[in-house]
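Batch manifest, entry 17 of 40.
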Amino acid sequence: MGSTLTVDNIVGATTAANVKLPAGHVVQVQSVASSAQLTLSSTNTWLATGIQVNITPKFSTSKILIIANIDFDANAANRLFFTSIFRNDSVNLGQANNGFNASTSAAGRMMSSVGINHLDSPATTSAVNYEVYARCNGQPTYVNLYGGVNGLTLMEIAQ
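Output type: structure tokens
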């Protein structure tokens, strides 16, 4: 026979931060959707896309699962672009290489949707900012040229 425990509120003996959650549980979720457009043209400079989310981890041992989806567009073939997630505008969590390698006329359009997943360990209970950055190979490449919706979701995972 199983047991059922029903409560309306769980409070730590001294503070709510003392309540321990089992490893793997989602503590909180923060997300943003953006339809902002951006033109990329620099080969060596990471450019902030404006797609950003802040999260304040409840536990310093928590991991942050980052899920991003970004739409890119170029007006010709052989365009290469890179995306990455930056923590607090300075820590590059690792880039994803993406690009267009199709044969098309200069008047043709190439579009691609990029997904990024990363598990970060910020080791803090202070506010942390995560933002999608991008750069390209010098040929004009566009973020969200046709008004789609790009997204960034953060999930705090208890450890």
